[in-house]
Amino acid sequence: MNHTSEPLLTIPRDFRFGENEADALELDCGRKLQDVNLRYECVGELAPDGGNAVLILHALSGDAHVCGRHTPEDRKPGWWDDMVGPGKPIDTNRYFVICSNVLGSCAGSTGPRSINPATGKRYNLDFPVITIRDMVRAQKRLIDHLGISRLLSVVGGSMGGMQALEWAICYPEMVQSAIPIATTAQLSPQSIAFDWVGREAIKYDPNWKNGDYEPDRVPDQGLATARMLAHITYLSDESMSRKFGRELQEHDEYGFDFQRDFAVESYLEHQGRRFVERFDANSYFYITRAMDYFDLAERADGNLARALAPAQADFLVVSFSSDWLFPTAQSRAIVHALLKNRLKVSFCEIESDYGHDAFLLETDTLGPMVSAFLRNQREGRK
Amino acid sequence: MNHTSEPLLTIPRDFRFGENEADALELDCGRKLQDVNLRYECVGELAPDGGNAVLILHALSGDAHVCGRHTPEDRKPGWWDDMVGPGKPIDTNRYFVICSNVLGSCAGSTGPRSINPATGKRYNLDFPVITIRDMVRAQKRLIDHLGISRLLSVVGGSMGGMQALEWAICYPEMVQSAIPIATTAQLSPQSIAFDWVGREAIKYDPNWKNGDYEPDRVPDQGLATARMLAHITYLSDESMSRKFGRELQEHDEYGFDFQRDFAVESYLEHQGRRFVERFDANSYFYITRAMDYFDLAERADGNLARALAPAQADFLVVSFSSDWLFPTAQSRAIVHALLKNRLKVSFCEIESDYGHDAFLLETDTLGPMVSAFLRNQREGRK
Questions:
Q1: Which residues contact residue B202 at a Cβ distance below 8 angstroms, ignoring those fewer than 6 apart?
Q2: CATH number, domain with residue B282
Q3: Tell me: the pLDDT tens digits for B285-320?
Q4: What is the pTM of this model?
Q5: In a domain, A309, yes or no
């Protein structure tokens, strides 16, 4: 077992399934996917009673590396290292934590840049359009493979929260509790619109070639533009004003040109550049589309409460006051629908000016809340 | 004089100035512009006392054609025809209305696609980077040319409101009243960020060629992407939900592809396509940059009240509740700064879910307010 004093090292693992057609993954689009790989990481130890497993679900650009380091030399830890690890709010001394890279992504799991076993070439846009539910179906295979029959909790922010909701509906008997954070039960037309414009920017990159780009000539300009746009929606006007204001980057006066002038422009450019180093344009297409298609209520003629009726889990729903991508009203809609089903629901809107990114940053507030909820789940039902 | 029963026909006119260096337009960047043309339209008649002139100031993509039609066959009238014309809130039976296309634009006035008299070629990115104040300096030449010594009012929404504020500060003795609508005294870092991403999309269009594009090979894909992005900021989440919701465009079910699926995607694509037919990519660069640089307070070490101190006008400031591009708080900041200068200020936040576009759409509410204010200005001081 790890202790807070030594560095936490984690090991990426691969789980392959669907080698034959009978075992293939059935998708919402009607197609089946064979030879699926899920990259995942586990931290902590599964309790003898099997009741301490926590599945963490990542957002658009996340990966399986939720906490710790792969080698002691790694400069940066996993994406939610403030929240997950020994002695952290999601305490890996107590819980067996699992996180897998979502289907369709590009950080080890099968996605559009994987080799299509039927052709021996990359899928690219031949990869089936997947949904959030498809991602969850693939994760279910992994959880079965790990011999876990019931999850203490499914936890995720943003797109991770969408997966948490799907888990609670699709496999209610397997989900003791769910913590959807900064998320929505239905992508709004405004978010669909932002996704559309981001994909347009990629589509018009001359390197794009309708998804058939060469590995050494990727549509990085389009992808950087899409990321910069999305990044604005992750921040808030307040946090941008506090962080950058109208500060100029290098000079005391306006440059009277179209180079980077303002600090916020440099910041965005940096974010765009960093993103293309680690993310794939085709995956960006597939994962944003999965979010566009996410609409729980639609399955029950627009009645969200009815759509959530199968769920049996206890819920902790969290939103952030300045999140305008998935504003508090959208979390409240989830809470109301859960309450109509007489489920146990805790809800908190955390005051924060970090915007949507708050789910990654407000760990001082979010941490104790999640920690107490999990402890209560584990001890209350032990 | 026009009557409401007959169609209002308007005539585009050109005003050239700055043929010699002494007469050239001095700009904030330190450069001088020779051979400037302003395209403008006038409606109504100047009163014998000269006291009924109303200058209307357009937004980013507007033009001089504020109302009426150029020919009886024109399918569409000018951009603010609901507000301006005989018997309309800005009543051309009472007021002499002037509207000119801003410097840097592409609808008749001198801009980056104009011929540089020094080279005989298009300016393109050799055109000087202009400011909102530069636009107003050019308009001042036109108003002088028209023999108007004092404007009853300067009226504009969005970037038009920025110009109205500049008019009140730069030429206080010429401005009896000002109506800045849905505007700000300072572009926020969030808006700077959106402008940046829009320009990045244009920059990465292979036709862009650093602004030296051929007239038959313009960067229309980049410009369309920039426009679609900007268009999202002109609407509100509420208005998009009401107008489109998650409606699908052509099919009953998801297409499971990356074609237009949602009505909001088709709408945006249509907006982008329409925009590139009438607007120039280089002008988009220059005008968005002028807005980025707009910061009245910065001239007085961050003190907006001090920056507005020269103004003598009466003000009607209007904002819209769902405008998240220039939210009400930014109008309130203007109002507070004006009140500190003991100016007469009326302020109204109009309840609307149209977002920023409300200044073009909420004429039923905005109209009577503007009409009464103008009438009071004209009759109170006649």
A1: B208, B219, B222, B223, B225, B226, B281, B284, B285
A2: 1.10.1740.110
A3: 999 999 999 999 999 999 999 999 999 999 999 999
A4: 0.96
A5: yes
